[in-house]
Design brief:
The chain is built from 10 helices and 14 strands. It has 331 residues and is of the alpha/beta class. 44% of the residues are buried. The structure holds nicotinamide-adenine-dinucleotide and (2S)-2-hydroxybutanedioic acid. Nicotinamide-adenine-dinucleotide binds next to helix 1.
């Protein structure tokens, strides 16, 4: 006897599966937090060869949870096996930055990982795979994977700015004496980096325009830098980069993509630019996005003032520079 009618299992690939983000991520995927209580999952976990023993330990712990939704666990160091028929991929495996580094300093160390994984997905993944890149620099790594998987729709490749989005919700809620669930229509534009632009011009707090509740000075001098520098602040405080909050944002990103945005609200996702808002086509740029039936669409028609335009262009310029720096990995 089952209360919930179960769906057909889906395959979820997680790379860097023995790392710190994955340790906060895998158990929630297996519990149903990402795709729902009626969606069985098969976990396909990728690691580098020296980390396979540690990965085995994680798989043992997953077994020990006896999650009803977890149908099977595959542990491998072969990307083609990890992406075989995969429906959802969370690309976490990459080196994190340490104190004093910018995320783009990781470009050289991590870029090769994403070209190899793009090629593997091109060969073996489901044609409808939904890919989220978490490993930094996330937007450009997503671009590299996408360009190395030419047989897949570029719209299947996304990068994570949901953590920046969630950080912004809480910063604004705390400032206005509200709570994060009352904040809607938040937007992160551009790169998951210190040039990202968290935009409050269309944001509502309990239905009221956020810009009317805060001072321009707090917005420009405190809110924006706090969100832009939050990753670095956590590295400084913890000695390690954010992990549980990053895993939580990855769950949120995938759940929203699969199950949709609430009526009257949107989210932020790094997605393939179609030229909306004048942003160069083909960059993986974070936009305000609505999701319906497993598909996403960029919110159109928002008014962009001079302040916003300057910041949107600065982060676009950085993404174009990152793209040009990895041109040798973009077929
Ligand atoms: P970690 O070092 O704890 O784990 C990374 C794991 O990836 C390691 O176990 C490593 O063995 C594995 N790995 C390395 N190369 C691999 C490959 N080719 N294939 C498969 N696995 C591979 O790091 P972490 O703290 O889990 O962070 C992972 C990445 O996520 C970092 O790049 C970090 O900067 C990034 N990050 C992004 C966001 C975001 O908001 N987009 C937030 C937090 C962290
Ligand atoms: C974050 O935003 O916390 C992550 O991207 C880690 C980092 O390097 O800042």
């Amino acid at each position: 006897y089952r209360k919930v009618r179960m769906k057909t299992p889906v395959r979820v690939t997680v790379t860097g599966a023995a790392g710190q983000i994955s340790y906060a991520l895998l158990f929630r995927i297996a519990s149903g937090a990402m795709l729902g209580n009626d969606q069985p999952v098969i976990l396909q976990l990728l690691e580098i060869t020296p980390a396979l023993d540690a990965l085995k330990g994680v798989a043992m712990e997953l077994d020990d949870c006896a999650f009803p939704l977890l149908q099977e666990i595959v542990c491998t160091d072969d990307a083609e096996v990890a992406f075989k028929d995969s429906d959802y991929a969370l690309l976490v495996g990459a080196r994190p930055r340490g104190p004093g580094m910018e995320r783009k300093d990781l470009l050289e160390a991590n870029a090769a990982i994403f070209s190899a994984q793009g090629k593997a997905m091109d060969k073996t993944a489901s044609r409808d795979i939904k890919v989220l890149v978490v490993g930094n620099p996330a937007n450009t790594n997503s671009l590299i994977a996408q360009r190395n998987a030419p047989s897949l729709d570029p719209r299947n490749f996304t990068a994570m700015t949901r953590l920046d989005h969630n950080r912004s919700l809480t910063q604004l809620a705390q400032k206005t004496g509200s709570s994060s669930d009352k904040v809607t229509q938040m937007t992160i534009w551009g790169n998951h980096s210190a040039t990202q632009y968290p935009d409050l011009h269309n944001t509502l707090v309990d239905g009221k325009n956020a810009m009317e509740l805060i001072e321009q000075n707090w917005y420009a001098e405190e809110f924006i830098p706090t969100v832009q520098q939050r990753g670095a602040a956590i590295i400084k405080a913890r000695g390690l980069s954010s992990a549980a909050s990053a895993a939580n944002a990855a769950i949120d990103h995938m759940r929203t993509w699969a199950m949709g945005t609430p009526e009257g609200d949107w989210t932020s996702m790094g997605v393939y630019s179609d030229g909306s808002y004048g942003i160069q086509e083909g960059l993986i740029y974070s936009f305000p996005v609505t999701c319906t039936d497993g598909d996403w669409a960029i919110v159109q028609g928002l008014e962009i003032n001079d302040f916003s335009r300057e910041k949107m262009t600065a982060t676009e310029t950085e993404l174009a520079e990152e793209r040009d720096a990895v041109a040798h990995l973009l077929p």
